[in-house]
Amino acid sequence: MNRIDQAFIDKKDHLLNVYFTAGYPTLNDTLDIARSLNDAGADLIEIGLPFSDPIADGPTIQESSHVALENGMTLALLFEQLKDLRKTVQVPVLLMGYINPILQFGFEAFCKKCQEVGVDGLILPDLPMYEYEETYKEVLDQYGLYNVFLITPQTLGERITKIDELSRGFIYMVSSSSTTGAKSGISEEQIAYFERIKALNLKNRKLIGFGISDHASFSKACAYADGAIVGSAFIKLLAEDKSPASINQYIQQLKTPQS
After folding, report:
1. What is the pLDDT of residues 186-232, one digit of tens each?
2. C or N terminus of the chain, fewer CB within 10 Å?
3. Is the separation of the CB atoms in 203 and 238 below 8 Å?
4. What are the DSSP calls for 158-223, one per residue?
5. What pLDDT does 181 receive?
6. Catalytic residue among 13, 29, 43, 46, which?
7. 84 an active-site residue?
8. What pairing do the DSSP bridges indicate for beta strands 15-21 and 227-230?
9. Alpha-carbon Rg for the chain in angstroms
10. Strand partners of residue 92
11. Looking at the whole model, is its pTM more than 0.70?
C-alpha cells in the first residue's frame, strides 16, 4: 500500500503536511529536516524542488528556491541526499515542483529514482491534466507514485469532478487564488469555498494549503478538510532556527491549542 493511503487510514482527520525546499537553508539540510519533521509528528512531508521561476510560490518560497539553487541543489544531488531516507523517515514523502526540470532529467528516470529512494507522490502544479492522462499516468503507475492535483476557488465543478476521478492519495485544495504565503488567516470568502467543496462529497481526501501558519488557521482548515499544508511559515522558521528542537516546538504549536 502507498504510504499516503496508509496515512489517511491511520489518522482520520487533522493531518499535517509540512513543505520545505530541498537544499535550504544550506545544501545538505534536506534529510536532516525531513528526519526532524518525522520525529516531531508531521503526518506527511512535502519536499520542494527548487526552480528558477516558481510561478505559484510567494516571496518566501521563491527566496528559499533561489538560495537552494545558489547553494548548488540539483535533482541528481537531491536523490543522492535521499538515498537513506527510509532508514529514519516513516511518514509519506512527496516531491513538489515544476515539470520543466523533471523533463530535463527525464520523466521516467525521475520516477524510477523516486521509487528507489522511497518517495510516495508528486505535486506538479503546471502539469496539464490531459498530458497527465495521455503521457505520464502510465509511468507514474509503473513506479507506484501518486500524482496530486490542485484545485482553487476558481476551479469549475466539471474539472473538480474530473480531478476527483483521476486523483490518488488526496486533492490539494489551494485556499485562495494568490501565491503561497500571500495571506494569513482564513476569510469568510474562503470558508464559503471550503463549504462548497465539502458539499460535493468527493471520494478523495482533501488537504488545504496556502495561508496556513499557526494553530488557529490549521484548526479552521481542518474543519473543512482532512488536514492542512504548511509551507511559507515553516520556511521562515528554518531561516531563523533549523534545529530539531525548534522544528519540534513549531509542529507541536501547530497541532495543539496554545494557552
Report:
1. 788 888 999 999 999 999 999 999 889 999 999 999 999 999 999 99
2. C
3. no
4. HHHHHHHHH--SEEEEESSSS-TTS--S--HHHHHHHHHHHTT--SSEEEEESS--SHHHHHHHHT
5. 47
6. 46
7. no
8. parallel
9. 17
10. none
11. yes
Size (the chain), residues: 259
Grid cell, residue 12, equals 482520520
Q: Choosing from 29, 43, 57, 226, which is the catalytic residue?
A: 57
Are 191 and 154 in contact by the 8 Å Cβ rule? The answer is no
List the helix and strand counts (H, then E) for the chain: 14, 9
pLDDT at 182: 44
Question: Which residues, other chains included, contact 203 with Cβ-Cβ below 8 Å and sequence gap of 6+?
Answer: 164
Pairing type for strands 146-148 and 227-230 reads unpaired
The residue to which cell 521561476 is assigned: 53
Contact predicate 204/193, CB 8 Å: no
Give the C-alpha distances (Å, rounded to integers) separating 176 from 90, 150, 187, 191. Answer: 31, 11, 10, 10
